[in-house]
Amino acid sequence: MRPGIPKNQEKARGDAPSASGIRCREIASADLDAVADLLAQGFARRSRDYWINGLRRMSAREVPQGFPRYGYMLDHEGTPVGVLLLIYTSRDDRGGTSIRCNLSSWYVVPAYRNYAPMLTSVAQRHKHVTYVNISPAHWTWRIIEAQGFQAYCGGLFFSFPALSHPKQGVRIEIIRQDAEAVDDLSEVDAALLARHAACGCLSLVCRAADGRSIPFVLQPMRLRGLSVPAMRLIYCHDVADYVACAGIIGRFLLRRGRIMVALDANGRMKDLVGFYRGHRGRKYFKGPQRPRLADLSDSELVIYGP
After folding, report:
1. Can 9-154 and 156-278 be said to share one CATH topology?
2. Could you read off the pLDDT of 103-126 as tens digits, one per residue?
3. Which CATH class is domain 9-154?
4. Which CATH architecture has domain 156-278?
5. Residue closest to 220 by CA, chosen among 185, 246, 196, 251
6. Rounded-to-integer distance, Cα 168 and Cα 34, Å
7. For the whole prediction, is pTM greater than 0.70?
């Protein structure tokens, strides 16, 4: 794994140490340096600065009331020996508000692995919250499924959008992080684009000839084993919007040295030129709201980075 309030909040936060001196509690701001050290130890390919930068972004973002800002940690006499990062977001779904939690990076010092279930049991106890795991390691798939998670995304489709036919009369506008409003976009979409631009994403609006304004968020993507410059589709309203605008987006990206866009998919996409890989990009959820494809907004990919 990258890999609502408990009934008894005091117990859930682990305020009373166990006989072994281990307790599970919320990560506090004072813990961030030690948590970054622990994560850098557990994830050899990630630097300490990578974790500190992400935790600082977490410290500034809005979090639904009553939920932890950073996640939970295993505390052994004041020292973190395990951590599970969580990203809670309030979302508008079908006219109502729901809570989504991205179960992000999880690491426990080997000597304390027996206590790892304390983290997951506390983190996943809210029945009204939809939990997502968007970067599970292949070897964890069966474990995740045994915990009640279902796959909602089978893999990634790697598209070459410049090879799609561009629609006439469509133009692209880049949205910067200081944008307060965007013509013909809702306040929610305008804020989302600006927020993601501040995290290093490429936020775009395609202005269609019929007057529609269609938002997109893309992010530079690292592809192990491939040297092709690529972007990942982080957000759009519907995959059909990307298909419709692929030609103009592809030419826009080509001028910036990017020739490929990867997007969540459950198989080949006949309306795009590219290829599907089911061994990359599988994503899981558990809870009342099945996530849709093409919405990785406010996720670990954005806040902590690819």
Report:
1. yes
2. 999 999 999 998 988 888 888 889
3. alpha beta
4. 3-Layer(aba) Sandwich (3.40)
5. 196
6. 54
7. yes
